[in-house]
Amino acid sequence: MMNVSSNPALETQARKADHLRICLDEDVQCHETTNGFEHYRFIHCCLPEIDRQDIDLTTSFLGKTLGAPLLISSMTGGTEQARLINFRLAEVAQCYGLAMGVGSQRVAVEQPEVADTFAVRTIAPNIPLFANLGAVQLNYRYGLDECLKVVDLLEADALILHLNPLQECVQTNGDTNFRGLLEKIEMLCHKLPVPIIAKEVGNGISARMAQRLIDVGISAIDVAGAGGTSWAKVESERAKDAQQRRLGKTFADWGLPTAECITSIHKIAPQVPLIASGGLRNGLEVAKAIALGADLAGLAFPFLQAANESVEALHLLTQILIAEITTVLFCTGNETLAALRHSQALQPKS
């Protein structure tokens, strides 16, 4: 039997399996840092003067039409359990017209035999699908060819380059050479035939860093702020040595709250498509994110839990989220998401 630790491809696959198990079975949520949406409240409208049946949640993102402003955020791939989850997620995304991202496809590049665990386009032919690679891999022998490969595999509408310096730093022997990445990202923005989305993994993107990413050609920003799953905690749970375990616990609540990221980036770059993710758990928080300037709201953990249970659980979750968003629009007197954004119905709590 081949030793997993001596085979980088098998090691990547084992890590993906660990991540999935830990996210489902262990408490790896932030506890001290929140997503920040609790600091805002909507002004209730007691006489909306609209018919709830006329409320329209359709929107567009990077030129694609969606039935609701929801993104099933990047989660998993590379294992049999991940295949089942991805296929269930894709089925529901297609049904409701949601966007969907997949987990890092590095494992599919290293092990082509697991590539089909990501291949959901036949199940979801009409939705925006986002491929995914770690930006740091551009310093570890990855380049345009690998990016094209994962985009083609998924028949993706965009490529997510995820930024995860804390996670890599916590991992023993993580990929921590982030030097010169902006220049390489700029090259990809000019040469890749699909838009590139910059995404954190749960620690947030500041306005300053967003501006630098936009300047090199990034088409959209997914802030993936703090307040939800802590990948430092996840790495601590799978630690094989004391340092990784300690680092993960020390930095468990590190990062910028999601709401803070959205407001600061929208202020400096209101024209740039913006995804709010990081600790969103219900449609009320989705609506708050939209009102603060986001174009889409990404949820991972709630969809992961439901997908692990059944397709029926996923349908129920999606229906509830849509009902919650619709209720916000109705009770603020807005028929569309655009109206909500311009309504000033969301106010900071005093």
Your description of this structure?
With 350 residues, the chain is of the alpha/beta class. It has a single domain (30-39, 65-318), classed as Alpha-Beta Barrel (TIM Barrel). 43% of the residues lie in helices and 13% in strands. The chain contains 14 helices and twelve strands. The strands form three sheets. It has an eight-stranded parallel β-barrel with strand order 4-5-6-7-8-9-10-11, surrounded by six helices. A two-stranded antiparallel ribbon has the order 1-12. Helix 7 (207-215) crosses helix 10. The radius of gyration is 19 Å and the shape is globular. The model has no long low-confidence stretch (mean pLDDT 95).
List the helices and strands and how they pair.
Elements: H1 8-25, E1 40-42, E2 59-61, E3 64-66, E4 70-72, H2 80-96, E5 99-101, H3 106-110, E6 129-134, H4 144-154, E7 158-163, H5 165-170, H6 181-191, E8 196-200, H7 207-215, E9 220-222, H8 231-237, H9 242-250, H10 258-268, E10 274-277, H11 283-292, E11 296-299, H12 301-309, H13 311-332, H14 337-341, E12 346-348
Parallel strand pairs: 4-5, 4-11, 5-6, 6-7, 7-8, 8-9, 9-10, 10-11
Antiparallel strand pairs: 1-12, 2-3
Approximate helicity band: 40-55%
Mean pLDDT across all amino acids: 95
Radius of gyration: 19 Å
| Model regions low in confidence, pLDDT < 50 over at least 5 residues | none
Overall 3D form: globular
Q: What share of residues are in beta strands?
A: 5-15%
CATH topology: TIM Barrel
- How many E-type strands? 12
User: What structural class do you assign from the helix and strand content?
Assistant: alpha/beta
Count of discrete alpha- or pi-helical segments spanning 4 or more residues: 14
Distance between the termini: 62 Å
- Name of the CATH architecture: Alpha-Beta Barrel
CATH hierarchy class name: Alpha Beta
Question: Strand order across the biggest sheet?
Answer: 4-5-6-7-8-9-10-11
Biggest sheet statistics: 8 strands, parallel, barrel
- Spell the H/E element sequence: HEEEEHEHEHEHHEHEHHHEHEHHHE
**Could you state the CATH homologous superfamily?**
Aldolase class I
Count of the separate structural domains: 1
